[in-house]
């Protein structure tokens, strides 16, 4: 049994994953564990593969094994958090992401997932979610989805002008973001800029013709314009 051999097989498994050879990669990760059962990385690699394959329950078991081997391994907590998130266990996922942060993991993905975990817990978590999305943007200012989610938080908290700025930045960076156009339309409606609202709803519908919320928003704005 050899740590060096385990590391080699783990690295080879990662290369196979990049090539899309998932089953062969899993075999190498299993062999890496056989070579050195105390080597943590392949447990997490298997967990990530399972999590990405909609096998979150099984993934959690592998991340837990890694945590039992080294309770200070932040990546394992992040992986377990992601699997719990996929199971819609928002508060448990947030606890794992928070633990990963406490252990030194800091990046845009972590703070985005902390934000989403907070947001999905519903009313009362908006300020917390907003703070996490801001941290995600501090690490990666070009993170379109973090920007969009920050805009949603701001809109929900009735900071409409600030939300408008975020949604406008989203559509500048991603002109095919139908939901951003829809939310821009809502924000413009709330600030009584009806012509701009109508244009945004139309953009959303052009991108996604079955966008029911945008279709309804456009109808309501047209009625408001007729009544002016």
UniProtKB/TrEMBL annotation:
The segments carrying the TPR repeats are 6-39, 40-73, 144-177, 178-211
What InterPro entries does the record point to?
Answer: TPR-like_helical_dom_sf, TPR_rpt, Ycf3/AcsC/BcsC/TPR_MFPF
Q: Which SUPFAM superfamilies match?
A: TPR-like
- Name the keywords, alphabetized: Repeat, TPR repeat
Source organism's superkingdom?
Answer: Bacteria
Q: Which SMART domains match?
A: TPR
Q: What is this protein called?
A: Tetratricopeptide (TPR) repeat protein
Native source organism of the sequence: Caldalkalibacillus horti
């Amino acid at each position: 049994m050899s740590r060096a051999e385990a590391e080699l097989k783990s690295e080879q498994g990662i290369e196979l994953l990049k090539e899309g050879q998932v089953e062969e990669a899993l075999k190498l990760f299993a062999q890496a564990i056989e070579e050195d059962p105390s080597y943590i990385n392949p447990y997490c690699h298997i967990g990530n593969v399972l999590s990405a394959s909609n096998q979150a329950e099984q993934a959690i078991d592998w991340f837990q094994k890694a945590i039992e081997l080294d309770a200070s391994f932040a990546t394992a907590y992040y992986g377990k958090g992601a699997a719990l998130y996929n199971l819609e266990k928002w508060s448990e996922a947030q606890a794992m992401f928070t633990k990963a942060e406490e252990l030194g993991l800091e990046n845009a993905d972590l703070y985005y997932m902390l934000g989403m975990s907070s947001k999905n817990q519903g009313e009362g978590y908006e300020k917390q979610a907003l703070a996490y999305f801001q941290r995600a943007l501090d690490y990666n200012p070009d993170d379109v989805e973090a920007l969009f989610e920050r805009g949603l938080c701001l809109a929900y908290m009735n900071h409409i002008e600030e939300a408008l700025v975020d949604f406008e930045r989203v559509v500048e960076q991603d002109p095919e973001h139908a939901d951003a156009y829809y939310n821009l339309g809502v924000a413009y409606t709330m600030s009584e800029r009806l012509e701009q609202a109508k244009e945004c709803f139309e953009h959303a519908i052009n991108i996604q013709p079955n966008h029911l919320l945008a279709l309804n928003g456009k109808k309501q704005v047209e009625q408001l314009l007729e009544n002016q």
